[in-house]
Write a structure and sequence with these properties.
Helix content is 30%, strand content 23%. It is of the alpha/beta class and 446 residues long. The protein folds into two domains: 270 residues, 3-Layer(aba) Sandwich (Aminopeptidase), CATH 3.40.630.10; 120 residues, 2-Layer Sandwich (Alpha-Beta Plaits), CATH 3.30.70. The strands form six sheets. A six-stranded mixed beta sheet has the order 1-2-6-3-7-19, covered by helices on one side. Strands 10, 12, 14, 15, 16 and 18 form a six-stranded mixed beta sheet that branches. Helix 3 packs across helix 13 and helix 11 packs across helix 13. Its EC number is 3.5.1.18. One of its GO terms (molecular function) is succinyl-diaminopimelate desuccinylase activity. It comes from Fructobacillus evanidus. This is Acetylornithine deacetylase/Succinyl-diaminopimelate desuccinylase or related deacylase (ArgE).
């Protein structure tokens, strides 16, 4: 159970920081960044932060850093990001994406789930504590503005600012309830390597009647892609799986205890078939690697007929990786594969790279987050060794030596990155109250 005073406070102050959602802080379009960081620094100062500032020294969009003094010697570091995805297609939104709208028990806005709503929840809790005896722990915030474009400088910022970021534990940007309505406690992230493939076979498009001798860039790229992954889904790049770790007994036991809700997952994703890629979803979501074509472009794609041989073709690919796969090593393996299979004409460019990690599930802080959640959510809790997605958490785990946990306020139907992104009001209230109870428990723990 949670303190009714906290839940009532959160409910009454849920809109206090809604201005944050009106900033169009779209990193991929370089929009709204200065205005957003200025607003954040001001909010942290008004809440009583000892330090609230922006860091620019390592490049990329600035980091907003803030630190608060609490009533114990324990320090919790929060990671969030203030940048969001573009809202397009705008025609599919039922309300303005940058005007937060409450309807049918939900809050709709771009970034309300990923990731502004999570920070709003944490700011609301700070405000509550400051009005009710002070913070139970020291709190620090690392809020970046380039997460949606791959967090290119987070490693450098963490290394350069180890002293300021020194902490005992790290709470990551957020988390959700799953398709079974279980509150998820996630303890790791998959790694990511993203790359572009390009091939050019002519200086201009060619009449398709000359296909008897003229090379076709589109076919060339498709053949290269086909060489890397079989119809069964196996990745055919030599060495790709060599460093995949088997799960520890503790982690395997958690995986064995989970249940994948196929019907709800298909509905939430809008999948048009019930024939999914694998048959071992519980394991693969934790320890399965992937190679995904994100996009293909070549030749004429307009209405009607245009009989050409495309001069060029391009594809975007990402791979999701697990411990101990190194993104840079995987990139080199893909490069070698293309060369060894006769595709030396395919240009390959790395566009994003983050390492995987998994916090030890027996860590005392992980166990505390679980016990508090079981009390607040009446046992409907799922411990997740790592999420299927990636993020720039590795340096916080490796450089700062923090156990990292992801807990938050959204749910399986929140639709991050999609039109009508939303969270449920009750999840915001419950998740905020949970965070307050967790911080209080951690601050008084012996």
């Amino acid at each position: 159970m949670v303190n009714n005073k906290i839940t009532e406070y959160v409910q009454n102050h849920i809109t206090d920081f809604f201005d944050y959602l009106t900033f169009q802080s779209i990193s991929t379009q370089n929009k709204g960044i200065p205005e957003t960081t200025k607003w954040l620094v001001q909010q942290f100062k008004e809440l009583g932060a000892e330090v609230a500032e922006t860091w620019h020294d390592q490049g990329a969009n600035p980091i907003v850093y803030a630190s608060f003094k609490g009533n114990s010697d324990k320090t919790v570091l929060f990671y969030n990001h203030y940048d969001v995805q573009p809202p397009e297609p705008l025609s599919e939104w039922k309300s303005d994406p940058f005007i937060p709208t409450v309807r049918e028990g939900k809050i709709f806005a771009r970034g309300i789930c990923d990731d502004k709503g999570e920070l709003i929840s944490r700011l609301t809790i700070i405000k509550y504590f400051m009005e009710n005896g002070g913070l139970p722990v020291n709190m620090k915030f690392f809020v970046e503005g380039s997460e949606e474009i791959g967090s290119p400088k987070v490693d450098e910022y963490v290394s350069a600012h180890q002293k300021e970021l020194a902490s005992d534990v790290c709470i990551w940007e957020g988390g959700s309830k799953d398709e079974n309505e279980d509150f998820q406690i996630t303890c790791g992230l998959k790694g990511v390597i993203a790359l572009d493939l390009e091939v050019k076979t002519a200086t201009r498009d060619i009449h398709s009647s000359l296909a008897t001798y003229a090379p076709n860039a589109a076919w060339r790229l498709v053949q290269a892609l086909n060489s890397m992954k079989s119809i069964s889904g196996k990745i055919e790049v030599a060495g790709f799986y060599d460093k995949v770790q088997e799960l520890t007994p503790e982690t395997q036991a958690v995986v064995d205890g989970t249940s994948f809700n196929t019907r709800q997952a298909i509905q939430n994703a809008g999948i048009l078939t019930d024939k999914l890629v694998s048959n071992n979803h519980e394991y693969d979501l934790v320890n399965g690697t992937t190679m995904t074509i994100n996009g293909l472009s070549s030749g004429y794609q307009g209405a009607g007929v245009k009989t050409i041989i495309p001069k060029s073709a391009a594809a975007k690919i990402d791979c999701r990786l697990v411990p101990d796969q190194d993104p840079d090593e995987i990139f080199e393996l893909i490069r070698q594969h293309l060369g060894q299979n006769g595709f030396t004409d395919i240009k390959i460019t790395k566009t994003a790279s983050v390492k995987p990690f998994r916090t030890n599930l027996t860590d005392p802080f992980i166990q505390l987050t679980k016990s508090v959640a079981e009390e607040v959510y009446q046992g409907k809790v799922a411990l997740i060794p790592n999420m299927a997605g990636g993020g720039p958490a590795y340096p916080f785990y490796d450089v700062l030596n923090d156990p990292i946990v992801m807990v938050g306020i959204h749910y399986a139907g929140s639709g991050p990155h999609a039109p009508n992104e939303n969270i449920r009001v009750q999840d915001f209230i419950d998740g905020s109250a949970y965070m307050a109870k967790l911080l209080t428990a951690y601050g008084t723990e012996k």
